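Quiz preparation item.
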C-alpha cells in the first residue's frame, strides 16, 4: 500500500519560512520523480517544484529563488524549504510521486498539508 504523508504546514507571517516534509512508503522511492503541488480555494492545482530520481529540480516561476526542494533516498523523504513566504503562497500543499513504467503512468498523492501566510 502506497502512502505519502505530509507534515510541516501551519500559519506563518509574510516573509517567514516553513519546511514541509513528505514521507513515502510502499514504493521504490529512489526511482520516482517527487513533487510538491498546491491548491488554493477556488483555484486549480498547480505545480510548485519537482525533483527527479537523478536530483534534477524544476520550479514554478512564482517560487523560484524562494523555495528549495530536496530528497533523501535513504529516508524515503522529500522536503520543501519555503522562504520569504507571501500571502499568495497560502494553499494546501500536496506531495506527489510519479514515474513512467512500460508506457504506464504511476501517480500517487498525499492528503495535503495546509500552509497559511497571514499577518
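Solution:
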Amino acid at each position: 500500500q502506497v502512502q505519502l504523508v505530509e507534515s510541516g504546514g501551519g500559519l506563518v507571517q509574510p516573509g517567514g519560512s516553513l519546511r514541509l516534509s513528505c514521507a513515502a512508503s510502499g514504493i521504490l522511492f529512489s526511482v520516482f520523480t517527487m513533487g510538491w503541488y498546491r491548491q488554493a480555494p477556488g483555484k486549480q492545482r498547480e505545480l510548485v517544484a519537482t525533483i527527479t530520481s537523478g536530483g534534477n529540480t524544476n520550479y514554478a516561476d512564482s517560487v523560484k529563488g524562494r523555495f528549495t526542494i530536496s530528497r533523501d533516498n535513504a529516508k524515503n523523504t522529500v522536503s520543501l524549504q519555503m522562504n520569504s513566504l507571501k500571502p499568495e503562497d497560502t494553499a494546501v500543499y500536496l506531495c506527489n510521486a510519479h514515474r513512467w513504467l512500460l508506457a504506464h503512468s504511476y501517480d500517487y498523492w498525499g492528503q495535503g498539508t495546509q500552509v497559511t501566510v497571514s499577518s
